């Protein structure tokens, strides 16, 4: 039964092309055998001219068929494979030359062998080998054709047509070889796709991916549009001039965002998406291909602008690139959620530690100060009251931080109320005047922004007094569009000794909010300017 199953698999199954796909030498050797066998059959049915050389043609074709059969079972060593292939092509060219010479010259039916020889050269060596083989075949044409044209009736038309056919075939096969080489290079690029998992300033890690996609697609500009399915805002990443830039909150309908549909590619010829593309990257482009994608969380499209090669592979490769970028966006979302959850857990642990250690110690200190206040003289009592109030202020701050850490709250708070509670007592603590101005007065910010800003202003005030002996600190807070502008001035001398100081911890705190900080000297006063993006800082 097993033998029968083996025979059925071998002879009863449909013809498989897998051996010829995995090793093109099988295809060449098999083609050589088929051509030679059918050539023998053809001249047996309809003998060639001249008749006196027919036996020689039979012997040559028979030997060529046997040679082709033997090559089916010959596997040269890898170091000798290139030399072996050159020898086999030389034998093919020699056999074709002899057959054409003895069977009618320009009228010989064996010119069809030209096609086989050129295809074999194109498969093995692409452009270089194909042209070299074509030159050898053209030399054969000239060698047998010129005497045939001059001897008797002119057959110049055969010489011209055969030559043109040879070189047109070379051009087409050369393109095939170049196309295959380009496809292999693209596949190698796809196989070496980068695997970065580090966000770029809380952005998806698209820079290296888009750089790689531009190499695969041969495009200098690529645009990625995406939207969280639970949100309305559309985001864009534009790869141009070897760098990526991000744009948020693009006005684009959902139909235009993913107009081709997930997994399909279309050329943009008009409509809202093309108009949007002209707005984002300008009008100095000729064609663009858009590929839609959809994941559990995101919907969007990848738009390739002016690819180097505009063949059908652009659409297929565009779909692969879009699928990869969609996966990276989804991965970025999962990593960010994981980091957020881990961060929240760490904040809860830290809050518990603060509650069980520092907060309890502060409570004990306040109780001891209350007891001491009742037993000391009046002047000393005032100092103790001030110390007690300072410790109670620190208690309030720590309780607020613990509450925020445990709940992970991101609700809106009135900034003026928060600053009144945490910042204004700094004046009595550091024996200086602290003035706060907020525009608009009822400005609301997220819990995180309020907490971080209170801590930043507290540190800035402490630095102004300790390092510059400041007596007055002025704080101005203004909302401008989606930015929170904070300006802190003091009348201290902190910049006189060692230039303009810059607090590293304060700068790091602002950068963690997605903002930036600059320190300068204006009218002999130290000025600290902060820009905090409200929306990114709130996330």
Structure overview:
This protein has 18 helices and 13 strands. It has helices at residues 2-12, 18-22, 24-45, 54-71, 81-102, 113-150, 156-191, 207-217, 254-257, 272-281, 312-356, 358-373, 378-407, 415-422, 426-430, 447-468, 504-512, 534-538; strands at residues 221-228, 234-240, 243-250, 265-267, 288-294, 298-305, 412-414, 433-439, 444-446, 472-480, 483-490, 516-522, 525-533. The strands form three sheets. A six-stranded antiparallel β-sheet has the order 3-2-1-6-5-4, sandwiched between helices. It has a five-stranded mixed β-sheet with strand order 8-10-11-13-12. It is an alpha+beta fold.
Distance between the termini: 69 Å
What is the count of helical runs? 18
Q: What's the average pLDDT? A: 75
In helices, the fraction of residues equals 55-70%
- How much strand? 15-25%
Total strands: the figure is 13
Main β-sheet description? 6 strands, antiparallel
| Strands in their spatial order, largest beta sheet | 3-2-1-6-5-4
Low-confidence stretches: 1-17
Class from helix and strand fractions? alpha+beta
Radius of gyration over alpha carbons? 40 Å
Q: Tell me, what's the shape?
A: rod-shaped
List keywords for this structure.
single chain; 539 residues; alpha+beta; 6-stranded antiparallel β-sheet; 5-stranded mixed β-sheet; 13 strands; 16% strand; rod-shaped; disordered N terminus
